[in-house]
Amino acid sequence: MLRQSLEVVCKEDFRKIKIGKHQRSNECVFDCDVTRSACSYTTEGHHTIQICEHKTAIKVRAKVVSRNSCLIICILLNVKLRIARVNMPVFPQYLTPKQEEELRNIANAIVAPGKGILAADESTGSIGKRFAPINVENSEENRRRYRDLLFSTDKSLAENISGVIMFHETFYQKTKDGTPFTKVLQDKGIIPGIKVDKGVVPLAGTEDECTTQGLDGLSERCAQYKKDGAQFAKWRCVLKIQQYTPSYQAMLENANVLARYASICQQNGLVPIVEPEVLPDGEHDLETAQKVTEQVLAFTYKALADHHVYLEGTLLKPNMVTAGMSCTKKFSKEDNARATILALSRTVPPAVPGVTFLSGGQSEEDATQNLNLINAIKGPKPWALTFSFGRALQASVLKVWEGKDENVAKAQAELITRAKANGLAAVGKYQGGLDSAAGGQSLFVAQHAY
Amino acid sequence: MPSFPQYLTSEQENELRRIANAIVAPGKGILAADESTGTIGKRFASIGVENTEENRRCYRELLFTADASVAENISGVILFHETFYQKTKDGTPFVKILKDKGIISGIKVDKGVVPLAGTDGESTTQGLDSLSERCAQYKKDGADFAKWRCVLKIGAHTPTYQAMFENGNVLARYASICQQNGLVPIVEPEVLCDGDHDLETAQKVTEQVLAFTYKALADHHVFLEGTLLKPNMVTAGQSCPKKYTAEQNGKATVVALSRGVPAAVPGITFLSGGQSEEDSTLNLNAINNAPGPKPWALTFSFGRALQASVLKAWQGKKENVKAAQEQLLVRAKANGLAAMGKFQGGQSGKASGESLFVANHSY
């Protein structure tokens, strides 16, 4: 319900007002249960009334009950009302300038030059798949030990890692000596982030398409995470390229749920990372991947606009544009980079401060080289172009660690190597060949879900 | 896999891109001389000139035979159908006159606004029937770009979803057809300045309208690199009691565009609406100097704001032609500087300070 101030010009002494039909022209009639004013309305002149607008029509009808008390409701008949601020659409302020500034600052800090995100938000199930190849049991303690390894890396990590996305369990875990992970990161100058979606669910009637759930109670959850140290959030939607997909329904639904998520985050001081991932599964060519990515992004930004999301306080986490994993034709990294920039330039408004690419199934080295080329080639690129890598930052780390304490330092060194490489790529200066234990290995997982 | 049939060859894409880039070359913009017969009549009435075909021909001849240096700041001219096929006194087609100066000819192809039943005074724009054949003919006869104007109004409950969706859609259909025929479509979703709304409202409405516009262009597979946008500058309503500076307008405009216009669009050619010549130039200059991501060219496509002083100087009299052409050169140069953010101000013409507002303007 909207409260508005009105200027009321009374043309007549109220005491002389007769009860009767009011004129249609210039009339404003209120349903007024809630007019309170300390002013007396018995005299001619300007009066301000706080009124409650029930519907779209603003009506004024007030009744004089008591001229002396504070609660005055009066009948205004044959009165010309000059209404301030009525004849225009309403865009209620939903973020104060301070809130906007905070969101903007966080977003810009995440995509500062040479920096990107470590996506360490694998769900319990997903991290199990990472542990399996190195024969590490998927226990809570092992999950804690592994993330402890990552976050206790030398503070020079913060030269290239601006933020870390965590899963709920991890967000509340601590080091062996009892220091919360969020504090460990903050002390290094790394911004903690939190994955807030609750996984994909199928869309009935579609060809194996899905949406993502997690909106229930999201506002309260976000408020709590913010209190506990998070500054940004992440939500992943998934679209697939098949014969008849992605469908209009899937693109519309996923974009809409991303926009609702983003809106709620911003209300709670968290920068939303918007992730509409187009999977690389399939045999489609590069051009198809590009066109589908453009479509998906067009739906995404239309939904963000419709839900009044403050773009300057968001980030985008898209797929790089590449042909399907089973495509017989091979494309160069330059081709991929060009297609990626084309897709983004056609859909991502310049107001978005940065694009933090996901690595998908790419090997560590491919992800870095692709990111480098995206930054190096020409084209309209008004946003930062950096990384939000999971597998492509951690593959070598896991391989070297093997679950053993004695390997921790060496594993951490791998992380620094990849972070540095990607930091260079994020400014188009990667020279290549920074060797890592798993550098060339494809990390593709079919139909990847967290 | 999904199918995206090729609908523009690489050659076609390159041609469209080249034309669009040439129109928004640094320091250059468009002279919008496409007033319909009815509208030019209103301009003539204010200087006591009869609205005859010959007078219309005379007046446009005045504009197009201005000194060749006008091409330093005017990259293209939009023409109305009648004008497109008119000639100078010695029989040279206007299109050729312009071409010889290195100025690109454009053609207005819409057929005016029509009401949307069930809305509060909202409209869409007609002109899609046989548009493809018309575009092909215009292209043959020398046009390289086209223009189509849609109109949205800020009122108590407008613009509505219906109006924004419909106008976005019709602009996208027009743009798609133009590109099929080698014409760069200038997309014009004008939000009128009528009303007493404040600057912030104008900005939010403009953002909404642009979001609908670019979603429609995406849905209709319009090749963005071969289009231009002709929006309103973001300003408060004409009757808004609160006054804003050019800097404020410039900032609000850039914010709205940065949120709604993809970087792939090569340039934005602002309409002047009801602003005076001087205000239009000052606002364009402020836009170019405003902070923010601005990956597109920001220039002008002015009608009234380039011609008001010209008309006033001309008065319909042959002996005034040179003086009138001088006025055009002055305004063109001023706006060329503004398009690069380098306008110093004070280049006054006979009508530079006069508001050119026409309530509920339609062509």
TrEMBL record, chain A:
SUPFAM superfamilies: Aldolase. It is an enzyme of class 4 (lyase). Pathway: Carbohydrate degradation; glycolysis; D-glyceraldehyde 3-phosphate and glycerone phosphate from D-glucose: step 4/4. Coiled coil: none annotated. GO terms for molecular function: fructose-bisphosphate aldolase activity. Keywords: Glycolysis, Lyase, Schiff base. It catalyses: beta-D-fructose 1,6-bisphosphate = D-glyceraldehyde 3-phosphate + dihydroxyacetone phosphate. GO terms for biological process: glycolytic process. It comes from the Eukaryota. Its EC number is 4.1.2.13. PANTHER family: FRUCTOSE-BISPHOSPHATE ALDOLASE. Belongs to the class I fructose-bisphosphate aldolase family. This is Fructose-bisphosphate aldolase.
